[in-house]
Design a protein that fits this description.
44% helix; 9 helices
Length: 200
């Protein structure tokens, strides 16, 4: 990262907006707070609750473009949710949706970073695991950083307890803290060209 102000457009569902977090920070607010930058950081949560990757693919370009500036270091964070499973989308369709987003971002020279879907209800756990792995494969093939939030949290007591304490779907303070930790420790600082914050 140079001396330009940093603009992060973060597209995703209600998890990007920190829904269910009594502090209102979500994982994005916590990550932004632990990202010391030499120039101003603007992290913009562009969330649509319950959105599938198809819906995300249809809107991200227009929403992101209007928030970027020629005088900024513009970057894209794709935070994928769980709605593809509930909507019955095939893995092939989900893969294609993410591939299209990342390919257009690359064509426009927008550095991208992908955060995968976290675990939700146990009933959809296997399908969510497959979805997360499919998204990871798409990102990895394009050399785009991918944060697997599903595998580390699927049997994590604190995560599961946080879900159970709420509506069974949305995490609270503890859950969002765990997601933020995973993002911060999966290449976040190096993607931004910043020194790694070992204490994050």
């Amino acid at each position: 990262m140079g001396e330009l102000p940093l603009r992060l457009a973060v597209v995703g569902d209600e998890l990007v907006a920190g829904a269910g977090d009594p502090k209102g920070l979500g994982w994005l607010g916590r990550v932004a707070a632990r990202t010391p930058t030499p120039t101003p950081l603007i992290a913009m949560a562009l969330a649509v609750p319950g959105e599938t990757s198809t819906g995300l693919g249809a809107r991200w370009d227009d929403e992101v473009t209007r928030r970027f500036s020629a005088d900024a270091d513009n970057r894209l964070v794709v935070a994928l949710g769980r709605a593809d499973v509930a909507a019955g989308l095939s893995l092939a369709r989900s893969r294609l949706n993410l591939a299209n987003i990342l390919d257009v971002a690359e064509q426009r020279r927008i550095p991208a970073f992908v955060v995968g879907p976290p675990p939700g209800s146990t009933a959809e756990s296997e399908k969510l695991g497959d979805l997360s792995a499919a998204f990871a494969d798409v990102a990895t093939r394009r050399r785009v950083p991918f944060v697997d939030t599903f595998t580390p949290l699927a049997s994590h007591d604190q995560w599961l307890g946080d879900l159970a304490a709420g509506d069974g779907t949305l995490p609270g303070q503890a859950g969002y803290g765990l997601m933020a930790w995973l993002v911060l420790h999966t290449g976040w600082h190096s993607w931004l060209g910043l020194p790694d914050d070992g204490g994050a």
